Amino acid sequence: MSNLLFGKTISQWTEADVERLKGDEVPEGQTVEYKKGFNKNVPKCIASFANALGGWLFIGISEKTKEDKNKNKVDVPKEIVGVKDKNPCLRITHIIRDTISPMPVFHPRVIETLIDEKSGGRVSLDRL
Questions:
Q1: Could you read off the pLDDT tens digit of each residue along the chain, which spans 128 residues?
Q2: CA nearest neighbour of 126 among 7, 26, 18, 51
Q3: DSSP code string of 56-71
Q4: pTM value > 0.85
């Protein structure tokens, strides 16, 4: 898998790129997954990426189901909700270390500028 999404590496991503996921309705698929928060399915998603071509896991983005142009149901970003965890990179590292062996290579990133004024939540981006 290419380590690029929108032609950028994870270290090059900005708030605008996260907003673009929503605006372009980038669907979940073999290399993109959205999670509203850290739930029990996060390790399964990470293990799936690790056993395939890798992928991009976006934590802090809710999703909705819609039909694509071929009438297939797909999940696309609905809302950027952020995460309330003070250190999401450390949390995802612990989740991976504690549930997956051998530990896959991953590159967590938090877009610090995406701070929700009400909840203090942040969007965490992880690329495996």
A1: 557 888 888 888 888 898 999 999 999 999 999 999 999 999 999 999 999 988 999 999 999 999 988 999 999 999 988 888 888 899 999 999 999 999 998 888 887 654 555 555 555 555 54
A2: 18
A3: EEEESEEEEEEE-TTS
A4: no
Residues 6+ apart with CB under 8 A from 83: 37, 38, 59, 60, 121, 122, 123, 124
Both structure tokens of 34: 């959205």
- What phi and psi values does residue 10 have, to the nearest 5 degrees? -60, -35
Distance between CA atoms of residues 68 and 118, nearest Å: 33
For residue 14, what are its two tokens? 């900005």
Q: What are phi and psi of 47, to 5 degrees?
A: -65, -40
d(CA 106, CA 71): 34
In single-letter form, the type of residue at position 7 comes to G
